[in-house]
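EI: anyone free to look at a 469-residue chain?
SC: sure, send it
EI:
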Amino acid sequence: MSTQILMPALSPTMETGTLVKWHVKEGNAVRSGDVIAEIETDKAIMEVEAVDEGTIGKILVAEGTEQVPVNQPIALLLEEGETGDGSAAETSSFGTRPPAAHQDEEGRLHREEGARTPVSKGEARQGDGERAAAEKVMDEIAAQIRGNGRERVFASPLARRLARERSIAIQTIKGSGPYGRIVKADIERAAARTSQAEQVRTAEPSRASQQELVRRQEVPAAQGMSNSQVLSLYSPDSYELVPLDTMRKFIAERLTLSKQTIPHFYLAIDCELDAVLAARARLNGMAPQDGPRAFKLSVNDFIIKAFAMALQAVPGGNATWTESGLLRHRASDIAVAVALEGGGLHTPVIRNAEVKSLSEISNEMRDLATRARYKRLAPHEYQGGSTTISNLGMYGIDRFDAVINPPQASILAVGRGEKRAIVKDDALKIATMMSVTLSVDHRVIDGALGAELLAAFKAYIEDPVTMLV
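SC: here you go
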């Protein structure tokens, strides 16, 4: 009996994923533990392994398919002795091969976007049982797609490409293909309607003037407006619609949730960095250049260590809000925001940072950051931190307020180090200063407790030798 290979839940927050790549083809034999596919979750691209032996009888979801729900069948695995030609079960609405649309007078079946192998009406094939089972699976998938109420866009690759080329918002198009799938003809009709609308707009100066007035008034496009309402404010030739990837959608959902549900307030303090810079230069000068003990410290490594020590000194700040009570964390697990090329970010976590040496933190952070940029982190490497550090100092930012990453209760925003004139011991002197801002969840951390936590951080970062005690 064939077994369904399901879309795995690779993280607790994952609801859908992108099937990036198949490592197997139909007819390939696989063993338990073989890598069969790569899946992009909300934060990373991960390999999926086969959990049983068998033969890949049918691939139901094509490479590059987005928004595939967790637990949705993506392939069929045949047991030993089963046969299946893989021709009857068409790829699901997530894939790229729609079911046959019609049959001509010669009994040849055709698809909307390319004919499949001709088959006469009376020709029989082996594997009818497997085909029937696969078709049943696909019918169930289609029923789930129609009934789950989620906003997904199912379109052929050709339709998606044409939509991008013609700057058409594919989300606004109703598909005429099987199961409501958007096909080439739908894009062409939409393009024709857009052209007619442009002609009407040119012939109606008053309407164009109204739209221009709206733009001048800078109506907040994202505040309670539907996708079509936002698009209606701009002429189609004035923008390029960049589809949202999985990570950008996840970031939008998480941070919107954060600002809506977490009562933020902010505390800022200035820290002197001259002692840290001197210690960094001295330690890097003593460090081996290669081998297992090699390291190269950054200022950010000192910041991670100092914040971890501060959380141990002020344990009330090392907590998370839940409806049943506050989770008081024993360890200082520090997540660090890492910007990704092309947009988005990861937050790999340095576990037990309070007990690790600066060189351990430095080497671990370098490894995590490198793999984060290629989306190669495992879920346990970026989930479960007790707080986060976001450092934009290297981008020339003096000071900023960061948004808390749920379910954490704080985030430390770090600005650049710069030379400033300060008063110290009643005398004017030049010092390298850094501004930091602590965003806190008021349900967990009150003003006095937050100030105590920042004071502890300042004490450690300004006198780094105390972090070694």
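EI: Residues 85-127, 144-151, 200-223 have pLDDT under 50 and may be disordered.
SC: 👍
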